[in-house]
Write a structure and sequence with these properties.
- The chain has helices spanning 2-28, 31-40, 45-55, 63-99, 103-110, 112-124, 126-133, 139-149, 154-178, 184-208.
- It is mostly helical.
- It has one domain (25-208).
- It is globular and about 50 Å long.
């Protein structure tokens, strides 16, 4: 129950930042505004894009718009790779925030039984949860922090985050390169591809383990 409360509180905090700052940032980071902002950074525009995607952990930055702008400026492969790195780093930063809470503190706060349930859930199903969450609003920040809180194995978290981050980066970079808004097919692929990649990653990990 307390783990559910933790997720609810984090979700409320993320929604709160959107209510307070979201409208202003949405006006600033339109597609045209994002292209202009990244262009102003000169040759380091791709770094600025990564920074914006990482800052989405605490600020309501419209990540798909920023990724589309990266694709428009740098092309599908370079822009998509930069976007994937930014999304992956945002996930790792969220995981790190969750790990800042000491294990003894988390066990006392959640209760030993709830803590073990959370660890078991993210050890067994965490990869699927993390990979899918990268393409959805609000959930990436919440799931990343929760994965860190319950000590999901970092290697599994890092691989699952990559499985969700890079497909999303390349897909929306392709949209930006084409100069179109986000179509339904891109969103559908950004859900399906991470699942396929995580399934493949699990098979590979299983095969290479002694």
């Amino acid at each position: 129950m307390r783990l559910i409360l933790w997720v609810f509180v984090l979700t409320a905090l993320v929604l709160g930042t959107w209510l307070v700052w979201g409208e202003g940032l949405d006006k600033q980071f339109t597609f045209a505004g994002s292209v202009q902002w990244l262009t102003a950074a000169g040759p380091w525009g791709w770094v600025a894009g990564i920074f914006l995607l990482v800052s989405d952990l605490v600020l309501p930055v419209p990540s798909t718009v920023v990724i589309s702008a990266l694709g428009y400026l740098y092309g599908i492969w370079v822009g998509g790779f930069a976007a994937g790195v930014g999304l992956w780093l945002a996930g790792v930063a969220g995981y790190g925030l969750g790990r800042l809470f000491g294990e003894r503190f988390v066990e006392r706060w959640l209760g030993a039984g709830e803590y073990e349930k959370g660890k078991r859930l993210f050890s067994v199903r965490g990869g699927w949860i993390v990979a899918l969450s990268r393409t959805l609003p609000i959930l990436p920040e919440v799931i990343s922090c929760t994965a860190g809180l319950v000590r999901m194995p970092f290697r599994s978290f890092a691989v699952a985050t990559a499985c969700g981050s890079f497909p999303m980066g390349f897909l929306f970079a392709a949209i930006g390169k084409a100069g179109h808004d986000s179509p339904t097919w891109a969103f559908a692929l950004s859900l399906v591809v991470p699942c396929g990649l995580w399934w493949l990653a699990k098979r590979i990990q299983r095969d290479i383990q002694p």
